[in-house]
Amino acid sequence: MTQLLLAWSAGDQSALDALAPLVYDELRRLARRHMGGERGGHTLQATALVNEAYLKLVEINRVQWQNRAHFFAMSARLMRRILVDFARARRSQKRGAGGQKVSLDEALLVADSGQDLIAVDEALQALANVDARKSQVVEMRFFGGLSVQETAAALNVSPDTVMRDWKVAKAWLSRELASPAQRPTPGSKKKTP
What we know:
9 helices, mainly alpha
């Protein structure tokens, strides 16, 4: 798979044709994971999510694919973007949709409203502004379903670093996603991960 990714990066379209059947099942697994927490009757189905992500991946021609983990991390990021964009569009159609805060566990399960996914996305963007690698670890581990070892390989760090980043990022995101009443008062805790 890595050889096909490298060939595709070099412009070999036949490599993309050979790669598609190899990655489709894994992309469906990622999509089912993303869609698993969505409300019943969601108009965007896992197959549509895979197809949308695949189309976006095919359009990306400036990426120098490193390996399988890099490909699936990018796939997870695209699926997250598609779902967040969908949730934002749905939220903008509703009147009175407020900025309800949720716990990290609830949000990471991508509960039924789409609001949770938007809150997680905004919190991950805020984390990325403070520490991009920790944000990438959450994205790869949770949204991409990558193992600690795969995440470490994709980020070129040790598995121990991934575990430390994961622990700190979860604590930071939990605080960010807490309701305002549960947040520490300014100055009582440092906001950096």
